[in-house]
Write a structure and sequence with these properties.
Helix content is 69%, strand content 2%. By secondary structure, it is mainly α. It has one domain. The protein has a two-stranded antiparallel ribbon. Strand 1 and strand 2 form a beta hairpin. Helix 1 runs parallel beside helix 3, helix 2 runs antiparallel to helix 3 and helix 3 runs antiparallel to helix 4. The protein is elongated, with a radius of gyration of 21 Å. 26% of the residues are buried. The N terminus is likely disordered.
């Protein structure tokens, strides 16, 4: 991947280091979420002992489609996190492997790289989109997990709502803040 410089000077020295730190952060967070995904896939939703729903109330038991959605959302989430991490790793590798005599951008390990900030920002944006979609799919998977464990959303008592409520309020709120910060960073 060829990366070329659009601007030069001291500004690039600081911004490229910040970009590398942002890419490291994306990869680290994606790794933690991927670990959580594999733990979630270890669940066997078809096990009758797995649910906490009273077996006498069959109307609150979830159907097999909820268990199928649980697995599907885990796979979509994993794919999104993998997409995001691979782009971030690729960008980091491109920055560290491109060396040219007349470049003016120093990366954190002391090497000099010729960086096209448009390509770098586009890659970071694509990686952020992958992370956001992975978080959304992971949230949907967790809602399905709560339904399998505690019963359909319509049947949830206070404990079930206390489990789902923060999940569907806090995660989208955090993602909205994350998106605003990423877009703000690109406008500067």
């Amino acid at each position: 991947m060829s990366i070329t410089s659009t601007t030069s000077g001291r500004h690039n020295l600081k911004s490229t280091t910040i970009h590398l730190m942002a890419l490291d952060g994306i990869v680290n967070v994606n790794s933690l979420f991927t670990l959580g995904l594999f733990l979630g896939l270890a669940v066997n939703p078809s096990d009758p002992n797995y649910t906490l729903v009273d077996s006498s109330d069959m109307s609150c038991l979830t159907t097999s489609s909820v268990a199928e959605n649980l697995v599907v959302f885990h796979v979509y989430s994993f794919s999104s996190f993998l997409f995001s991490s691979l782009i971030a790793f690729g960008l980091k590798q491109a920055i560290r492997s491109v060396k040219d005599g007349d470049t003016r951008v120093e990366v954190s390990d002391g090497t000099i790289a010729h960086v096209n900030l448009r390509v770098l920002r586009g890659g970071i944006l694509a990686s952020a989109i992958g992370s956001v979609s992975g978080c959304l799919f992971l949230t949907l998977a967790l809602v399905d997990l709560v339904q399998i464990k505690l019963g359909k959303l319509a049947c949830l008592d206070w404990y079930g709502l206390a489990a789902v409520g923060p999940l569907v309020v806090l995660v989208p709120s955090a993602l909205a803040i994350y998106i605003c910060i990423v877009l703000h960073a690109f406008s500067r």
